[in-house]
Design brief:
Helix content is 35%, strand content 14%. The protein is built from 23 helices and 17 strands. The protein is α+β, with helices and mostly antiparallel strands. It has helices at 2-20, 51-67, 84-92, 108-113, 121-125, 137-141, 174-179, 194-204, 210-213, 247-256, 277-281, 328-337, 360-366, 368-373, 387-391, 429-440, 442-449, 459-462, 465-468, 478-486, 499-502, 505-512, 519-534, and strands at residues 41-47, 72-78, 100-104, 161-162, 166-173, 182-185, 217-219, 237-240, 288-291, 296-299, 307-310, 313-315, 323-325, 379-383, 398-401, 415-416, 418-422. The strands form six sheets. Strands 5, 14, 15 and 16 form a four-stranded antiparallel β-sheet that branches. Strands 3-17-4 form a three-stranded antiparallel β-sheet, covered by helices on one side.
Length: 543
């Protein structure tokens, strides 16, 4: 009896050991794709995604397994995206964990602090596949972090290699623009010559000038600063999808496609964005700033510091020769105005809503992608990841343009990213990196780019037809690569966790943007409690 019990106990321990090492080094047989697992070190990769993405990753994993048959075998396990990070964190803290997982740019720092993941610096240094100099700097820097100092510098520890980078752009419904007589051109400012404009006018029977075509949006009946009016019959209007509209130009355009302003609009609303980043960053503002004198962070969405911008450089010196730009508070107010009813005083000081975007509550019942694909909104700020969704919609003709920018400010916006990491408790870290190296390298990235949902990590690959795909929508994909050069991670990547964001973000999105409370209420409620929580964070050079 004792011997039998001992055997059962040993068997149980062996099974646990197998799972603990990621079901590794003891596989066998031929898989469904004809790959022989015998003799290979087996590693487990947990992923998630939409159906199309999962299919692409199964193909990528299969290609890797065939290339490394008898050496490394990757077992690809898909998990629900809604609970992915909660599930992963539970196993990373225990003994039984996968070898390779995704890490969001919002949790990478906390995983490094908790010792869940492995530094990749030595692996990358010795790699003949990964060339960091050819990868987007913002994609790499969001995964660099010094646990001791809290800094993210070029020589800080690298914890992940990007799976993707997803800059945000302005998607627009081409058919809607054409239906209301908006002419669309796709020409860079320096290429808008007198000869080009003359040829365009001759071909299309229009009367545009060079100055007009060098704007993001121009219309004949209004100069973008005077009182708004519905376009007159036959009025000429011009949209250049290579040039960022000013806030004034964009509001002029968005009102044309909002039914409460223009009854002939094919869409209920002209615009939707859920992010304040492009507004605040365009004028050198942010949601927190570091007070060097007091040695602490302070909440700064209400900052009234005046900046002057010259050649992309900001100064507080009025004599610097720069253009005065809106303050952070003015930029944030502009963002909040977007979804508020025209009869709502959004700050208690007479600043009325614009009602050109749907409220968060409206979107919660439909979903923002559906709002765009069903034609209820004419333009939408979103990332590259939505391209496969839009391409599937029959009859939807869409393209993209730069995000609106403050007059005199700089182009700005955020990009999303997910990275590949190796679990600290993985027993096969070398083999795990081989797989990450493939997925994050040129071959794996080119395959992912074919579906349209991501921009390749490699800048050189992103400039080719592998990504640009000029025979498919969006035709203006170069806007994504330009945005990738300057867009950065959102506020979730600033500090070691997101507790400080929880103090104000829900109130903003639920109470203020849905019109239940105004901006004065917002700052009265959240400023002190956010500053209190910020006292617990060390300095971080997140920009």
């Amino acid at each position: 009896m004792k011997k039998t019990k001992a055997i059962k106990t040993m068997a149980s321990l062996l099974l646990c050991g197998v799972f603990a090492c990621g079901m590794a080094a003891c596989g066998g047989g031929v898989d469904d794709n004809g790959v022989n697992r015998a003799g290979a070190t087996e590693i487990t990769f947990w992923g998630y995604g939409e159906e199309d993405e999962i299919a692409i990753f199964r193909d990528l994993v299969n290609t890797f397994n065939k290339a490394h048959e008898g050496e490394i075998y990757v077992d690809y396990v898909t998990k629900p995206g809604t609970s992915y990070y909660e599930s992963v964190e539970q196993v990373l803290a225990g003994n039984r964990c996968p070898d390779v997982v995704y890490v969001g740019d919002d949790v990478c720092k906390s995983w490094a602090i908790n010792n869940y993941i492995v530094p990749l610096d030595d692996y990358v240094k010795n790699s003949t596949v990964i060339d960091l100099s050819d990868m987007w700097e913002s994609g790499i820097m969001r995964y660099r972090y010094d646990v001791e100092t809290g800094l993210s510098n070029a020589d800080s520890t690298l914890w992940a290699l990007p799976k993707d980078i997803g800059p945000t752009v302005l998607y627009y419904n081409v058919g809607f623009f054409e239906s209301l007589g908006v002419s669309i051109v796709s020409v860079d400012k320096e290429d808008v010559t007198a000869e080009y404009v003359a040829a365009y006018n001759t071909e299309h029977g229009t009367h545009f000038t060079v100055e007009q075509m060098q704007r993001g949006f121009w219309r004949e009946g209004i100069d973008n600063t005077s009182s708004w009016s519905v376009p007159a019959a036959g009025e000429e209007m011009l949209f250049n999808n290579r040039i960022a509209m000013t806030w004034e130009e964009s509001e002029n355009l968005f009102k044309i496609f909002t039914q409460s302003y223009n009854s002939k609009s094919p869409s209920k609303y002209g615009y939707f964005t859920e992010w304040w980043f492009s507004y605040g960053w365009s004028v050198n503002g942010d949601c927190i700033k570091y007070d060097n004198a007091a040695n602490k962070w302070t909440f700064s969405l209400g900052d009234t510091t005046k900046y002057y911008c010259k050649d992309g450089i900001f100064s507080t010196d009025a004599s610097s020769g720069g253009t005065e730009v809106p303050t952070m508070l003015e930029a944030f107010t502009k963002f909040v105005q977007l979804s508020q009813p025209k009869t709502t005083d959004i700050d208690g000081k007479g600043t009325m809503g614009l009602a050109i975007t749907p409220s968060p509550n409206t979107l919660n019942t439909v979903g923002k992608e559906s709002y765009f694909t069903t034609g209820q909104v004419a333009t939408m700020v979103d990332g590259r990841w939505t391209v496969p969704v839009y391409r599937k919609v029959k009859g939807l003709n869409f393209d993209c343009a730069p995000l609106p920018v403050a007059k005199g400010g700089v182009e700005a916006g955020h990009s999303g990213s997910v990275g590949f990491v190796i679990a600290k408790r993985s027993r096969h870290q070398d083999e795990a990196f081989k797989f990450i190296e493939y997925m994050s390298g040129p071959e794996g990235q080119a395959k992912q780019a074919e579906s349209g949902f991501n921009i390749p990590n490699q800048k050189s690959v992103s400039q080719t037809e592998v990504f640009l795909q000029s025979d498919k929508m969006p035709k203006n994909s170069i806007i994504f690569t330009r945005a990738a050069a300057f867009e950065r991670a959102g506020d979730w990547n600033y500090l070691s966790d997101k507790l400080w964001i929880d103090q104000w973000a829900d109130y903003l999105n639920d109470e203020v943007r849905n019109g239940r409370n105004n901006l004065t209420d917002f700052f009265n409620v959240v400023t002190n409690r956010t500053n209190k929580v910020l006292e617990g964070y060390k300095y971080s050079n997140f920009k």
